[in-house]
Prior knowledge:
By secondary structure, the chain is of the alpha/beta class.
Amino acid sequence: MDIRPLTDRYAVSPQIAPEDLPAIRAAGFATVIDNRPDAEIPHDLQETAMRRAAEAAGLTFVSNPVIGGAITMANVDAQRAAIDAATGPVLAYCASGNRSSIVWALANAGRMPTDALIAIPAGHGYRLDGFRRDIDALAAQG
């Protein structure tokens, strides 16, 4: 497990496994967001298995599959809703943590300065510079 905090209430991680979920709960997380489509991962890491393990560990589980290079407004809205509904810190995961960082930045457009939404993930090696225009456009929509 390689948890990378973006804020005190949101962290990202590369792919986790069902056996990681009790430790994730013990680390204080309340919600886990799965940002990987089932089609790109083995059966034992797909949504059904991960949901079952997360709920058994006492975590809220949200599936929001994000296709790399094809993030939709539905993805952004779902991520924002899951973050807003969380009763404690959120851990979102995908293959590397990159998509979970991008969809977080887009979901927080207008809530935090664009520069911060780009710089915070950059501290973990995620390059969101190419999303500046999208973040600014979402922020302008209010």
